[in-house]
Amino acid sequence: MNGRGARAPRRRVDGVLLLDKPVGVSSNAALQRARRAYNAEKAGHTGTLDPLASGLLPVCFGEAAKFARFLLDADKRYTATVRFGVTTTTLDAEGEVVARSDVTIDRADIEAALPAFTGRIRQVPPAYSALKHQGRSHYEYARAGIDVPREAREIHVASLRLIEWATPDAVLEVACSKGTYVRTLAADLGEALRCGAHLAALRRTATGGFDIAAAIALDRLEATPVEARDRLLLPVDALLGALPRVEVGDADALHLRHGRPIVTECPHGAFVRVYDGLGNLLGVVSSESETLTPLRMMASG
Questions:
Q1: pLDDT for 203-235, tens place per residue?
Q2: How wide is the angle at C-alpha 133 spanned by C-alphas 200 and 67, nearest 5°?
Q3: Residue range 158-175, pLDDT digits in tens
Q4: What is the CATH number of the domain that holds 19?
């Protein structure tokens, strides 16, 4: 064998890459391209963006993947383009047109309607979603023309602001909790204004303390020299900035590394990030009374 076409062994890569996902690429496809760019053993992302959407997609390599869940629960910020006068089956631009209406609203009408969709509200998930009903995704039923129950869920929209208005498109800035469907917000807003609407474009600009300004575009990543790519990675504990921090001594660090709880003075918070005396991340523990119990720990060595 001459070795041509042989793939180099996968590397152990630990860290977080802030990726700017382009439109037209699925989150998984973007993830796999980033993984190939680093030739990484293990990678995962922290919350799916539809192919229609672009923007911030944190990619977790190696040990960082253990802590992705703490970003899944984080609040998000989006720039959303809402097109009035057209409703679709999927509530976004990928669906079939259901109805068309004249758009006679103005900026003042939109701004007057926004407060009703701000704060703690209840939202019915779209028929075309990945939520499950009796073991199957809602979109499977929708594609088959079968209606299934969709219960309203409480979400939190921290802010909803009109940035631009050029009939029939409104550009909104949306800051919201996990579980919020921005396309449902768009459709509900169109219904409230009696002309219908759908989500024409979506860009995620922030999540869990990370901002799109710090992200790198996928094509730019792939054009970056291999030896420079590791410098784009954030440390594993960048995912955990919202959690209280505690340092422990050598004996307690050893107990935690071996999966044993310790008794110590606990900071407030259900989950705590723990470091050894040298400032090395040990992992995340659950905190109750004066007991810290290992939850997700870094691999030793």
A1: 999 998 999 999 999 999 999 999 999 999 999
A2: 70
A3: 999 999 999 999 999 999
A4: 3.30.2350.10
pLDDT digits (tens, 9 = 90+) for 270-291: 889 999 999 999 999 998 888 8
Higher-pLDDT residue of 69, 190: 190
| Same-domain check for residues 22 and 69 | yes
Q: Is the C-alpha dihedral spanning 170, 172, 176, 178 positive or negative?
A: positive
Return d(Cα 169, Cα 80) in angstroms, integer: 10
Active site residue 147: no
Domain count, the chain: 3
Helices (H) and strands (E) in the chain, counts: 8, 19
> Residue 58 domain-assigned?
yes
- Provide the domain limits for residue 281: 243-297
Question: Does residue 281 share a domain with residue 261?
Answer: yes
Among 50, 75, 109, 276, the one annotated catalytic: 50
Whether the pTM exceeds 0.85: the reply is yes
